[in-house]
Amino acid sequence: MIVGHVVHRYGQLSESFIPDALEALERAGVESWVGTLAVERRDTYPYPPDERLLVCPPPPLARRALDRLLGRSGTERFAGRVAERLRPHHPALVHAQFGWAAGSGTAVARRLGVPAVVTFHGTDVTVAAPGDPVTRAFPAIDTAVAVSDFIEGKLRDLGYGGHVEIIPAGVRLDRLPYRGEHAGDGRLLYVGRLNAQKGLSVLLDALPHLDAGLDVIGGGPDRAALEAQAQRLGVPATFHGPLPRREDVLEAMQRASVLVMPSRAMPDGQAEGSPVVTKEAQAVGIPLVATDTGGIASTIPPDHRADLAPGDDPRALAAAVERLLGDPAAAVARARRARAWVEEQFDAERLARRTVALYERLAP
């Protein structure tokens, strides 16, 4: 089966789950072609082969201005170019990643006369509103995929009335060896974007209540402000920036004692959909402290969800961390259970087979 995927920017460091999913689909018998405006980090994400990357960058500004005068939309122009390049390969359907690409993906599918699938991951629906471009694409979607029950609820709130499949973002377990039963180096670890929604500022406010240092991996618009906050608080936080090599992030997870995910829900609706970091941490076996916001709970074993900390509460976050640091045996037992949960629920190979089954129902 050949499937055309539409991703506005392919290979972004924060969206490793997309190339991982396409590789898993390849192993499950799906040949993926990707229509995109731009490609990033080709060295990090070498799949798919170059001949299956259909890069259609935006035209020069003068051309875009002329198109606007003539009433031609950028979405339709991009969709036309992708469809033209996909047509000779006869894809069975088109699958758009993120609601941002829903308009483009459904337009490509319409031109090719095939079904359209759109996966919604998080902010693409949590900050959307009725009448937005994301919601205007709803009638043309044959099946929506939501990465968690939380995201399905947001889709329904926006008025989507079609069929929804829950298929979370998976992780490559073969790349995430379980670290065994050791307590780590006594330090905390944060991995993620440096922006308000990810909540690192809350974790920094929690550090004065803890006898532990913090390693921060990630980049983003708030880095300077967060470094200034750490300096003002006098807390032992080391900012390493983004680490594009997966091996470096894995090594950090293998060393640290606790990974903390302090995400919060924002006033505009931003919240986690089905975060990959919690799954990767649990697969590796590093004890995890996270907040009960958005779709985070769905990535945690049901028997651990009562221990999730409330968002935006530094003292509660510190208490949750302290409980794990103070009881290494319990932390190891939790980590073992969490690894089993990830194997059951988030193995990329299993999720690829579920995705193929969806494709076959839509385009037998």
Task: Describe the protein's architecture and organization.
The strands form 3 sheets. The protein has a 7-stranded parallel beta sheet with strand order 5-3-1-6-7-8-9, sandwiched between helices. Strands 12-11-10-13-14 form a 5-stranded parallel beta sheet, with helices on both faces. The protein is of the alpha/beta class and 364 residues long. The chain is globular. It has 14 helices and 14 strands. The relative contact order is 0.13. The protein has 2 domains: 2-170 and 347-362, Rossmann fold, CATH 3.40.50; 173-345, Glycogen Phosphorylase B (Rossmann fold), CATH 3.40.50.
Helix-strand topology string: EEHEEEHHEHEHHEHEEHEHEHEHEHHH
> What form results from the Cα inertia axes?
globular
Helix-and-strand structural type: alpha/beta
Looking at the overall shape, the CATH architecture of the largest domain is: 3-Layer(aba) Sandwich
Characterize the largest beta sheet: strand count, sense, and whether it forms a barrel.
7 strands, parallel
Helix content: 25-40%
Q: Assess the beta-strand content as a share of residues.
A: 15-25%
- CATH homologous superfamily title of the largest domain: Glycogen Phosphorylase B
Note poorly predicted spans: none
Mean pLDDT: 93
Number of domains: 2
Radius of gyration: 21 Å
Q: Give the CA-CA distance, first to last residue.
A: 10 Å
Number of helices: 14
Overall CATH class of the largest domain: Alpha Beta
Strand order of the largest sheet: 5-3-1-6-7-8-9
CATH topology annotation of the largest domain: Rossmann fold
What's the total number of strands?
Answer: 14
